[in-house]
From TrEMBL:
Record's protein name: histidine kinase
Residue numbers carrying 4-aspartylphosphate: D509
Taxon lineage: Bacteria, Pseudomonadati, Pseudomonadota, Gammaproteobacteria, Pseudomonadales
Domain Histidine kinase: 225-437
Record-linked InterPro entries: CheY-like_superfamily, HATPase_C_sf, HATPase_dom, His_kinase_dom, HisK_dim/P_dom, HisK_dim/P_sf, PAS, PAS-assoc_C
PROSITE patterns per UniProt: HIS_KIN, PAC, PAS, RESPONSE_REGULATORY
SUPFAM superfamilies: ATPase domain of HSP90 chaperone/DNA topoisomerase II/histidine kinase, CheY-like, Homodimeric domain of signal transducing histidine kinase, PYP-like sensor domain (PAS domain)
Coiled-coil residue windows: 159-218
EC number(s) from the headed UniProt entry: 2.7.13.3
Pfam families: HATPase_c, HisKA, PAS_8, Response_reg
Boundaries of every PAC domain copy: 118-168
Length: 583
């Protein structure tokens, strides 16, 4: 034991607790006791580490006051920067920690009664006065004080939000089920009513269809008889008018006779179309399939329309096919006659090409024109009865039955009708007819009229034509070859470079496929051949912007529709520039 004379400020150690003096302790140290003390210190440090680093909040508090101790997790849950800030900031749990004083009172009473409570869900107040949902477990510690408690707190905000969302979804689902059930019940009532109405309407429709069939058959029979009977006097009247035309009449009377002639012609065409439609609707027209000489058939039609072309001052070119096709010659003649009539009716400038070419096992007979063309959105309507391409007042009109007859007769012959058109540029109508025997046409038989003598300066002139429209390519090639040129056609610059062995001049359309221009095609060909080939742009675009663009490229320009004399002058100019460069 220490003597009374020992200093009062000296620290007591383990030897004092055991009643031993310092010297005795050094001599009689108990290793086991020291080891136990070290273990207790380690355990205390471990629990302190767990307390400081726990994920859940842990605190000790007095229910009548505030916090005694709290870990950092508890401070974070309550929105404080540190445990010390939480302990100093909350000095009354009832008013400052719990959102509801009544809830605090209920928890306190349960602790006093039972000594503990587990996972009680409640709301605590954060530092910014916003609530936070927690699950709290409390244990009363009467050994530390009458109302001292220790608690574990878990933040369950996400769980609470998920629960609320699920509750809302369930409520919405129940509401939607109720609404849908009501809708289905109402729909069933409406459906039953509609079924009853439909059954009644169907019964009425059966009666109406039968009556319509009878009326339609009567109409067709009457129309066929009336049309046939009216054609006879009209034909006689036309013969009389024809005699008057050949007479030596004064100018005014002759003009009136010409108008009567055209009126009678239109009336006769109308009645003939009505008669054909009537027969087609009654399915009274049956094909008589025979092997037909296509050359003779096309030659007869060409001779029939040559006067029409001369009167309209239009170019009419014919490329006859040779050989035989399997078809009804009367129906095929009517189809081609209607196509030619439309081509001349809707063509103001340029011309019409009537040609045949082999397409696999078929012969394609087509009519190309440089007429008004058809908008793409209207192509599906042109085969309907009484549909006209031109608006009223747009020139000589039909009644809109020609193409309807073409489509129905082609269907009877099991032939395909192909249509291609560009509004403002022209159209192409063609029919595919099965071949019986076909041989390539000779050069002398491909044109119905002999080609004119080409200027000597054009002989052997190599011309490259770039245009994305095949009918335009063929028309240009035919016209230029008549003048003695050697023509190569292409739909694009790539095709021109791939298939053209060389060119003296280039004629390119301005608007090509894939948003490319003729100017770009010209420069691509020039780069490929490595020389500045004379070139011109042919376009239907008359805008100032396009003209300025072409002019800045130092290229000649020619507007569509192309007239032969202007094209000849352009080719002569390009050929002259070629000759000047060679000199």
């Amino acid at each position: 034991m220490k003597k009374p004379s020992d200093s009062n400020n000296a620290d007591y150690d383990i030897g004092d607790l055991l009643g031993l003096g310092s010297q005795s302790v050094r001599k009689n140290y108990y290793p086991a006791l020291q080891e136990r003390i070290d273990e207790l210190e380690k355990e205390r440090n471990r629990y302190k580490w767990l307390f400081e680093n726990a994920l859940h909040g842990i605190f000790q508090a007095n229910l009548r006051g505030g916090f005694v101790a709290a870990n950092p997790a508890m401070a974070r849950i309550c929105g404080y920067e540190s445990s010390e800030a939480l302990i100093t900031g909350v000095i009354r749990l009832r008013e400052q920690l719990f959102c509801s004083s009544g809830e605090f009172d209920a928890i306190r009473q349960e602790l006093l009664d039972n000594g503990s409570l587990s996972a009680r869900e409640t709301r605590l107040r954060r530092a910014d006065n916003t609530p936070v949902q927690v699950a709290i477990t409390l244990l009363r510690r009467p050994d530390l004080g009458p109302e001292v408690v220790e608690a574990f707190v878990a933040d369950i905000t996400e769980r609470h939000q998920a629960r609320e969302k699920l509750r809302q979804l369930n409520a919405d689902l129940e509401r939607r089920v109720e609404e849908r059930t009501e809708e289905l019940q109402n729909a069933n009532v409406v459906l039953r009513y509609q079924i009853e109405q439909r059954e009644r309407v169907e019964r009425e429709l059966v009666v109406a269809v039968e009556a319509a069939k009878e009326a339609n058959e009567s109409k067709d029979k009457y129309l066929a008889a009336a049309s046939h009977d009216l054609l006879q006097p009209l034909n006689a009247a036309r013969l009389l008018v024809s005699a008057l035309i050949d007479s030596d009449l004064p100018a005014d009377e002759n003009r009136l006779v010409q108008r009567v002639w055209r009126s009678l012609e239109s009336a006769e065409d109308l009645l003939a179309d009505l008669l054909d439609i009537s027969k087609l609707d009654q399915k009274a027209m049956r094909p008589d399939i025979v092997n037909t000489d296509i050359g003779e058939l096309m030659r007869g039609l060409a001779q029939e329309f040559e006067p029409v072309a001369e009167n309209a001052e239009l170019h009419f070119r014919v490329r006859l096919g040779t050989g035989y096709v399997s078809t009804d010659p009367r129906m095929l003649t009517r189809i081609l006659r209607n196509l030619l009539s439309n081509a001349f009716r809707y063509t103001r400038e340029g011309g019409v090409l009537f040609a045949a070419r082999k397409r696999g096992p078929n012969l394609e007979i087509g009519v190309w024109d440089t007429g008004v063309g058809i908008e793409q959105e209207k192509l599906n309507d042109i085969f309907r009865e009484f549909h006209q391409i031109l608006p009223k007042g747009g020139g000589r009109q039909g009644v809109g039955l020609g193409l309807a007859i073409v489509e129905r007769m082609a269907r009877i012959l099991a032939c395909e009708i192909h249509v291609g058109s560009h509004h403002g540029k022209g159209s192409c109508f063609s029919i595919l007819v099965p071949l019986a025997r076909f041989t390539e046409a000779t050069a002398s038989s491909q044109n119905a009229e002999p080609p004119p003598i080409a200027p000597v300066s054009f002989d052997g002139l190599r011309v490259l034509v770039i245009d994305n429209e095949e009918p335009v390519q063929e028309s240009m090639q035919a016209l230029l070859e008549r003048w003695g040129c050697v023509v190569t056609t292409a739909g694009s610059a790539v095709e021109a470079v791939a298939h053209c062995g060389g060119a003296d001049i280039i004629l390119a359309d301005f608007h090509l496929d894939e948003n490319l221009t003729g100017c770009q095609a010209v420069y691509a060909v020039r780069r490929h051949f490595g020389r500045d080939i004379p070139a011109a742009i042919i376009t239907a675009d008359r805008s100032d912007e396009t003209r300025r663009l072409i002019s800045t490229q130092y290229l000649s320009i020619l507007n569509k529709p192309v007239k032969p004399n202007r094209l000849r002058a352009l080719v002569s100019s390009l050929a002259a520039s070629l000759n000047s460069e060679s000199q």
